[in-house]
């Protein structure tokens, strides 16, 4: 799996470098540099074709749109993963706290109901398969 990404990364790096060089040629264009410009344009076309070939190998990979928003904002896409994990951990702690609170509430409710309705709670516990408290 990593080889697929390595190949794509290599082609993208070459493509970016060709665009950088093309920008240098265009910014200081002289008629004598027309041949170099044409060559770089051909390299761009070839680079896009190479990237397109990689697309076929990675067709089953999906990337959340938020990752592209991070990139568009100039942020590191790895921050997206980090922030997702942090949000998941925070939500996990919140839900764990709610579960613990509900368990405590259930325990207290059963204790109080046992005081008020001892016979009914004995039947309830027998139905649930719970041993009555000593």
Task: Describe the structure in your own words.
With 134 residues, the chain is mostly helical. The chain folds into two domains: 1-61; 63-133, no CATH class. Helices cover 81% and strands 0% of the residues. The chain has five helices and no strands. It has helices at residues 2-27, 34-57, 65-72, 77-116, 118-128. α3 (65-72) packs across α4 (77-116) and α4 (77-116) crosses α5. The longest helix is centred in the last third of the chain and has 40 residues, at 77-116. The radius of gyration is 32 Å and the shape is rod-shaped. It starts with a helix and ends in a 6-residue tail after the last helix. Component of the Mediator complex. It is found in: Nucleus. Belongs to the Mediator complex subunit 10 family. One of its GO terms (molecular function) is transcription coregulator activity. Keywords: Activator, Nucleus, Transcription, Transcription regulation.
Helices and strands in order:
Layout: H1 2-27, H2 34-57, H3 65-72, H4 77-116, H5 118-128
InterPro entries: Mediator_Med10
Family: Belongs to the Mediator complex subunit 10 family.
Main location: nucleus
Termini, distance in Å?
Answer: 59 Å
Backbone shape: rod-shaped
Output the helix-strand order: HHHHH
Share in helix: over 70%
Average pLDDT, rounded to a whole number, is 89
What can be said about the biggest beta sheet?
A: none
Please state the CA-atom Rg, rounded to the nearest Å. Answer: 32 Å
**Separate helix tally:** 5
Strand composition percent: under 5%
By DSSP, the count of extended strands is: 0
Number of domains: 2
> What structural category do the secondary elements indicate?
mainly alpha
Q: Could you name the ranges where pLDDT drops below 50 across 5 or more consecutive residues? A: none
InterPro entries: Mediator_Med10
Subunit structure: Component of the Mediator complex.
Subcellular location: Nucleus
Organism: Sclerurus mexicanus
